């Protein structure tokens, strides 16, 4: 790499426009930080007509991606088109043509980690993807550098802004999921098809990347439990907030237990005094614990044009400064053995039964929990009626997931139980 | 640097022992992350007798620092002795002898920044000091890498664990400063002579380093206001907590205002819903705002043997991976012009007057504030007596520091004012 670093951008969408904007606004800073001239040489997109609201030299726009992939002068390719194909083909071609790659494509990286990294290593180029997890938050770099001497014990991440916005609004305003989702869609905080965000898949992909970097273990998504937030009700959220001092968050959790790995994505009640409980709205936060550093929280905007573009350019600067830098994508030897089954999870549970308030139901339920060795920390009954069904909320002590499930299955067969029983896991560090 | 990286450690104190412990416990991980053999080859200290509670090969201990500085096989020198001299002489000698240096010595770096960096650059070696600010928190590295494409707007740091522990205890338990300090000393959270921590000097030194890295501007400590926490009372803290929903924190603030730099250290009231308000006990948190990334919080243990050693080894790994890496210590051109005088500060103020509750005093005080263009957001009077002095608390709208000072000087001359008037700045982002 000479004193000039030529950058090609594939994908002129929202984040792509953010990248162009950083070049427009902070060109001097970029040059000064790298000691080189950083050129945005070409931008490829199928649509080069629509106005993206940023100033751009029309001569650098192209509809032919090979204008970038085959341009020998281009040193760094930024891939921001997303999805598996043709993004993967383009990235592999760029790497094989000796170009460094910067990508925000968590889906692709989570799925094809090994092939991408190996191709980069084989070609002596770098592939960086800080923007793929936690948007603008410095996250992968710290794992690989400042925190690199640690063996990690656990990673807890609020990594989806859409889900977190919805849960924050449900909590603050006591609204139903559907109402808030609609509002979020109107505000542009949720996609027209929000499945990916609200069902936890986006969080799962980011967790896969963090788990590989933190524990050296690659776990494909089909190998762990992923639960979304669509079934949450204001009743549970408000009760947990007011009576139990819990917040509700969609958490990605990767945790070393004995020598195995717990990995899971699900809505989780978090005690109010835990810092993750203060990560609200569209913000993301990743809380990790290292054997030497102890707990660390990294917090910021997990998505959005400007924040994500900031992380993309951070990677470009790193490459411009250190094209020969050796790679460090977490420990080469996995720090954990097998992936534990969710059935073996031990945590605290929030359980809401809906029951007709007959004398004796508490006793029966208590007996069933005891039979499965699930001990109860607190019981609260809301409302008071002999006829209407009322909610009764149990908080368990640490208990085994499969035991809790069996107990609830048996409880649900009691005549007094009306309506669905709700179970929500509680964070237990 | 061959496939073996030899490390020499100067200073076998608390943190030095932590470094030895990481080598003992995570040697395999260190080797794997760097792809090299990382050897702790020598440890120098005047006292090599006292048991530090960690296993160490006695043959690597030496009382002669030149056994490290003049050993041609040593690639990286870790300096953990602290203080200005002889630490500075040793570091310069190490750099001039072609050795990379890792240091946690914020005092030295804050004072001799230019000489240290220039000497490293001249010798084509690296000097890293992630551990000098925020202990184990990834802080300087993110500024230089993941966040590097940003122009920074502001940096707010809770960077002294002792002060934060004391303020947290005063808040939670309503205790006097002296009581809590004594308890903190007994627990080992405060030094026998705590001046450096509680008067804000430690925070100031860390702020100097962050300001240089964030804004490219070196500001020596004598050029800005540094106020400690010794004058804070439970009365103000409790009132702010219960009536105004503020927390009290010792903040280091560096902020771009117009094109100039605001830089200051002082106790600050922070609204409860601000994330910094949840940074409690001995923890540190730095909240920064970049023009693209927006707000970011980096949180963790700001001191202590294990966390600080984690950051030191993070730097050593970075050097082992990338000995040729180009340096990036923030923008070379300062991003701000002059340092603003504290007299020109515009923020909100908490003002507690102590007055005999004569009718008319509120009116007189209001007139004086108005005369100096200080407008009032709220007034609260606690207690109710015609004879005893009672506190009256004013919260101002944004006002000018010098105007507030002048107003208070005049107010203090009123006959009705008894005892000292307390002024505390309120965070205004």
Automatic annotation (TrEMBL), chains A, B:
Pathway: Amino-acid biosynthesis; L-threonine biosynthesis; L-threonine from L-aspartate: step 3/5; Amino-acid biosynthesis; L-methionine biosynthesis via de novo pathway; L-homoserine from L-aspartate: step 3/3
Keyword Cell membrane attributed: no
Gene Ontology BP terms: methionine biosynthetic process; threonine biosynthetic process
Gene this protein is translated from: hom
Family: Belongs to the homoserine dehydrogenase family.
Gene3D superfamilies registered for this protein in UniProt: 3.30.70.260, Dihydrodipicolinate Reductase, domain 2, NAD(P)-binding Rossmann-like Domain
Cofactors: a metal cation
SUPFAM superfamilies, alphabetized: ACT-like, Glyceraldehyde-3-phosphate dehydrogenase-like, C-terminal domain, NAD(P)-binding Rossmann-fold domains
Its EC number(s): 1.1.1.3
This protein's name: Homoserine dehydrogenase
Entry GO MF terms: homoserine dehydrogenase activity; metal ion binding; NADP binding
InterPro entries: ACT-like_dom_sf, ACT_dom, Asp/hSer_DH_NAD-bd, HDH, HDH_cat, HDH_CS, NAD(P)-bd_dom_sf
Enzyme class at the top of the EC tree: oxidoreductase
Organism: Methanobrevibacter curvatus
Residues annotated as domain ACT: 350-429
PROSITE patterns per the UniProt record, alphabetical: ACT, HOMOSER_DHGENASE
Keywords: Amino-acid biosynthesis, Metal-binding, Methionine biosynthesis, NAD, NADP, Oxidoreductase, Threonine biosynthesis
